[in-house]
Every structure is written in structure tokens, then in C-alpha cells.
Task: structure prediction
Amino acid sequence: GIKRSELLEKFPEEREEPFDSETKMMATFHQEEQNGGFRVAVKGAPEAILEACVRVRTEDGESDFGEEEREKWRNRNQELAEEGLRILAFAAKTADSVDAAPYEELTLLGLAGLWDPPRAEIPDALSECRDAGIRVIMVTGDHALTAKNIGMAVGIARDHDAEVVESRELKDPDSMSESEREHLSGVSIFARVSPKQKLDLIKLHQRNNSIVAMTGDGVNDAPALKKADIGVAMGQRGTQVARQASDIVLRDDAFSTIVAAVEMGRVIFGNIRQFVVYLLSGNVGEVLLVSAALLLNLPLPLLPLQILYLNMLSDVFPALALGLGEGDPNVMEQPPRDPKEPVMTRAHWIAITGWSVLIAGVVLGAMWLALTWLDMDESSAVTVSFLTLAFARLWHVFNMRAHSSPVINNEVVKNPFVWGALGICVALLLIAVYVPFLASVLKLITPNMKQWALIIGASLVPLILGQPLKHIPVPAFMKAAEKEKPSAEKEAREEEIPRREETRGGFPGERISIISVYFLLSLGGLLLHLGLHPPAEHVLFWIPAVFAGINTVIMPFLFYSRKTVFGAYIFTWITVTVGAIGMTYFSILTWGEQAVNLESVVFDSTLPYIILLLTKVLLAHILLHLHFPEGFLPRRGTLLKENQEDSKRTEEPSKEKERK
Result:
């Protein structure tokens, strides 16, 4: 065979004319030792090469390349394309200067058909995309017939009558009629497309409120990768420019990896929802439980240290196990989620409220039965309510399975981390009850058989009642409403306003997880206040309680936004300072007036509360760092400058439209 390295030694390369999507050709100039001239080697799209050639080389030498001969070569090109081959045409000429025009007076050498079969996994990946509500459009620079054959091979085109639109039929969407835009929106294969036309296709589909992902590997693909909602570059054969312009880089250049990433993204998002629903339903249930007991003048069902111990178990191990789940196996059969849909929809908030009321009601019922039916004293009844709530929250993890999934064979039951978490939590609960030192700290007694029967039976009620609810269709009013994108967004896309690079603020999942823990700590602090039964005249108790309530309800939302995180951070410090002063004063007052043991005051209220406050400050620092990785305190004018830039980006499209 002929080796390129040997040819380059014989004919050194002096100049390269890179491939141009407009000419659809490239050329190289090589020094010839014999006559001192240059040999020009040209390759490119057959239709472009055939038009540029004036002679053709045959077995008998070179001859004129007339229109009749050119038509024969066009037919050969057509035949090769019908076989699904990717075709290149080759031509050459000699030149006296290295600066000569490369594409004039060419001699045709021939055509080459390249068999580049699609990867075996492509048809299955495209089938998964269709099931997931993702439409795949093929945009290529190949011949139309080649594109159609490849499209049929992978399943994009269903038959030979599938329409293929070539570059000459494409134009700017702004100059198209509504019927033309609608027609092109339904086409799935585009051939001989230039980089500029890729931008037009992206704009066309974005006008239809579609979320567009674009794959590319070349320098010319960079504008389209930037314009798309999600730019995907090839990691192996992609250029550095393409990788920098994209949002995602494929390390293996496989389309199936994109499908796997979509599936994993849906699973992670579903796990975040499960995580939040599980945490909020259990903790709001605690708030309702304590509040209801205070309103009904019942003994407090949970003591402060019991609340902290319970949150340490239920809010860490089962919640973390849900976050590590493999997700619903049918996740790729669900339609795409509206990008404007919040993490927690109306249905989720209704579910959280329902689960919270159910859990709180069951625990109150168990405590009432312990006081009346079993005739227990207050400390024994508190033990029953504590264990009932603990086990109810553990079994509640099985209510987090996907809607309409099987009762047994579902993603939660098959999650080994869930079973490991339950085992750890049950062991720690038994240790809390049966280890004397820990039981005395938590003020727990050892339950007898009747008490255990009441605890286990009552704790299973939310699980038993929750399973049938998973098979009831979600009413339409509970689903998130689908809203059309505002006209301002459309105008911004049409004016090709560059997207703002979201380089700060961390991943949303990180913020949500940390904010969830912050919320739980604020909730624990509020419950500690409510559990102390202070006299009404102790102002230094009620002021921290009010601050703790505001901190619990409002601060988690303010910490999510970059614009309000400083206010939330400062308010956290105020809450911590006021709370520490108030709790210390109230503890000293309780110790002095009621002659309570100092060790009891410190371990039951003051120390846990101070630890909780310090942990909240640490989380506030972390959230501030996620929003401002360059430093906690930005340089003077940074926020003002960013707000001005955001306002300018919003105003420019409307001003430009008025000028037009």
C-alpha cells in the first residue's frame, strides 16, 4: 500500500487550504522536485468537485470534462449514495506558485465511497428517545440519499418516502411563512447543511418552545453549540473550540451516552423530589404533633433531645438512601418535564401536608391510647409517642415509591441502601431504649410487650393507608400547570441574545440538599423553644422564638437565590445571636427559680441548642460560598454591576425592536 508519510517525504506539503462549508472542499499544495512546481490535491463533496473540474483523468490519459461526462459522474455519485455510502470526490492540478487559486482548472481523479455504518446501539437508543418524548433530528453534511439511508438504518426514517430537506431549501426562519415553518418543524432529516443553517434550525425549533440539544465536533459547530439550550461536544474527535462552547462533553462520542445521561438526570431529579417529600412530611409532622399537643393541653409528646435524636436518624440514613436509589425503571417512558415546573409541584405539597397530618394524628392517637387504654404515666406515654413517630417515619420511606409502581417490586424496596439505613436506624432506636445511660439522657423507659404492640401497630398505619393512595390517578388540578414561554424570551431568542453563563451558584442539587438540612435545623430549634413551656412574661424567650419561626419559613427560600443570600446570611447571624442570648438567659432563670439541676438544664436544652445554632452558621457559610466561590464578601459594586448587566440584557432586545 501507499503510506502518507512516504508521500510527504517525496512531496512535502507547503500549504493547506482548510475545509470550508461554503465551497465544501479542501486542498493541499505539495512541492514537486522534478519541475519545481506544486501539485495541488483537492477533495470534497462530489457536487462541488464536479462543478470545479474542467478535465478528467482516464485510463487513456486526461480528456475534456464536458457536460455529458459530468452527468455520468453525477449518476455514479447518485448510485453510491443510494447504497448508503459517504462519498468523497478527488481532483488535482499543477501550479507554478503556492499562492495559486486552489479550486480552478481542476482534473477529476474519481469518487470514493466510504462505508461508515452507525453503531449497533443507535437504533435502541433512538427507540428510548421516542419513548421518553425526545425527538431526534438528523442534520448532516452528507448527500441527501446517504442521509436517508442512514436515517432508515437507525430508525429516524421509517420508509423510502421519508422527506429529506437539503441546504438549498433552507432559509432564515424570520423570512419563512407560518406554513413553511410548520412544515420544516416536522422534517427529521436535513442534508448538506452549513453551520449557519444549523443556527437557523435551532432558532426554528426554539420558536416552537422546544428545548433543543445540539451535538457537534468542529470549529464551525461552535456557534450552534452555543445557541442551543444544551450543547453537546464530542470529547475524542471534537475540537477544543467545540468543547469550550458546549455544555456537555462526551468522553466516548457515543449517542447512547446522551440517552444514559438523560435517564440519569431524570433519576437524580426524581430522587431529589423523594428526598424532599420524605424529609418535609416527617418534620412537618413533628411540628403538627407538638403544636396539636400544646393546643389540646396534652403532655408534650416529644422532648427536645428526643427530637434531635430522631432527626439525626430519620433525616440522615433513610433520606440519604433515597438519594442513592436507581430510580423508577419506567422513567424513560415518561414525557419530558416542563422546564418551568418547580422542584416541588402542587401535588407534592398536598402530599406533604397529607402525610404530615396522618403521621401526627397516628402518633397523637398512640399517645392517647397509652394514657387511657394502657393507663401509663406521662414518661411512659412519651416513650410510646417517640418510638411510634420514629418507626412511622422509618416505614414511611416505602411510601416514596413511584406513582402506580408495584407494591413489592419497586425501586424503593429493591434499593439495598434503604434496607441498610433501616437496619442502622432500628439498631440505634433499640440502643436508645435498652442502654441505660442513653435512655436516661433521652428520658425513655423500656416498653413492655403491650407497649411494643401499640408502637409497632400504630407506626404501620401510615404505610398501610399510603399504599392504596399510590394507585389513585393524580387529579388534574394537582398537576403543575404548563405555561407558554413569555414573548420576551422568544424575542431574546430571535435577536440571538447570548445566554448568560451560569458559572456560579453551585449545582441546584447541592443547594437544595444543604438548604433542606438548614430547614430541618431551624425546625429543630423552633421545636426546642416550644418544648420549654415558658411563662408568657419571659420576653427573651418569645423574641428568639419569633426569629426562629421566621428563619424556618422564609430563610430557605432566600438562601436559594444569589440576590437574597446575603440577607439570609445576615438574618441567620441575628437569629443565632438572639437565640443564644435568649436560651442562655432562660436556662439560668429556670435553674435559679425552679432549683433545677444545672447539668439537666445544660444537657436538655442549652447545649443542644447552641450546637444547633453553630451548625446553622456553618451551613450558611457553605451556602454563601456556593453562591460566591470567589469570596464571601464580593468587591464593592459587584452585585450592582451584575443587576445592571441583567437589566441591560433585558432592555436591549426591546430597544432594538423599536429601532427596527
Notes: The mean pLDDT is 78. The first strand starts at residue 13 and ends at 20. The two ends are 62 Å apart (CA to CA). The CA atoms of residues 51 and 489 lie 44 Å apart.
